[in-house]
Amino acid sequence: MKVAVIGDVDVTSGFGLIGVHSRFIAKRKNEVEAALSACLDDPDMGVVIVLAPLADMVRDSITRIQATRVYPLIVEIPGKAGHTLEEAAITRLLGKAIGISLQSGGLQQ
Prior knowledge:
There is one protein chain. This protein is of the alpha/beta class. It has one domain (2-80): ATPase, V1 complex, subunit F (Rossmann fold, 3-Layer(aba) Sandwich). It contains five helices and six strands. The protein has helices at 9-17, 29-41, 52-57, 59-68, 85-98; strands spanning 2-7, 22-25, 45-51, 73-77, 101-103, 106-108. Strands 2-1-3-4 form a four-stranded parallel sheet, sandwiched between helices. A two-stranded antiparallel ribbon has the order 5-6. The longest helix has 14 residues, at 85-98.
């Protein structure tokens, strides 16, 4: 099962350091949509991590994907501005799922 990340340069670089090879740098809606499409086309894709501000750009697409597919699991992570309590809970669950602790401000083992 593969893991992908869609985010800015900092986020994708950080995930690259922990071994995530499918990384997509996106800034605009069409770039996020193209990255999501590439992830959906990969039958081995299990988890797609998306930076929350980018996920907001394509909210309708993410909602449709989550309603119609089991995989890939789409998980949003907070941007540099911080996160809500719900996002914090999801971040903890994702950390358990992939075996690392995700902290705002950096990754810790």
